[in-house]
Structure formats: structure tokens, C-alpha cells
Amino acid sequence: MTSADEKAQQLRTLPALSQQDLENFQNPRLEYRRLLGEFSGTFILVLVACGSAVIGARFTAISTPVVAVAVGATLLFLILAFGRVSGAHFNPCITSTLALRGIFPWRRVPGYILAQFLGALFAVIVLRYTIGDFADMGYLTPQVDTVGVWFWEAFLTFLLLTILNAVINGAMAVGVLASVAMGSYLAVAIMIFGA
Prior knowledge:
The chain is an all-alpha fold and 195 residues long. It has 8 helices and no strands.
């Protein structure tokens, strides 16, 4: 490996994964830590993403770029915080894709997806009881039909997975490059396609 290659690899995985990090990620006795990391990360991400959109729509005029930066920065920091613990998936699509690629064990997929679902559900419940009921939030705009929404969601998820596959280290999203790439992608996607 050349010096430039070594520097690129080091930048890609900063903070570097130690042998202990990799062993902890594989240790079945530490599954509770990984599941708690997925629950917490998903909870925070959904709370910020949905919360900023709802608050912006209900109480004040928070613009889409502000929501986008808030959500992108949140994902960036969550990957840095939880990447070494759980791999920072925070999305059943990511967990399933990593398992399909054979770099994440299928036996751990149900627990991860359940933790992600419960984290998202808990975030929505917290928003419901702190901000209140906002019954029409999230309804389709008249200009966008259901098929169009499904298409764009599938396309944007495909792009998310493409970027993820370029920056992950095994089944773990860790380091500066992964966090900046994923957070920036999410922010740009929200700016272009809306919150």
C-alpha cells in the first residue's frame, strides 16, 4: 500500500477502528449495547427530522434548508457517536442491505430492525405529546401522487445505499468520511426533494 493509499484509508476510518472495537462489534454478549445504540440513534434522528419539520410547519417558518442542515448534522454526529458501537445503521434498509451483501449477520437483523422501529416509534410518541396533534402533517401535496412518492423514496434510498457502500468499513459506518458523506447526502436530498 502506498503512502497516499494509507493516508486515504486512515482518513476514511478516522477515528480508527481498533481491534477491540471489531471484537466488541462481534461479541454476542454486547448485543444489548448495539441494540441500545440503534434505538438511541434512530430515536434522535427521527426526533430531529420529524420534529424540525413539524415545528417549522406548525409554529414558525423554519425553511427547508435549515431542516436539511439540522438533520444532516444530526446524522453526522450520530455516526461519529454510535458507529463504533452499533455500526450506525439507524434504518432497516441499511441493515438489510448489509446482511444481503454478507457483511452483517442475518441473526442480528431482527433485533436491529426492532430497535430501529421502536426508536422511531418512541420519537413520534414524544413529538405527539410534546408538540401536539398535527393531523395533516405529512400528507401528500396535490402536485405529488402516491406513485411519485414511492418512486422518489426508492430512488433516494438507492442513492443512500450507494454512498453508504462506498464509505463503510465492513458493516460499520465509522469515521469522518462516512459521517460527512452520509450527513451531507441526507442534507442535500432534503434540500432538493423537501422535508
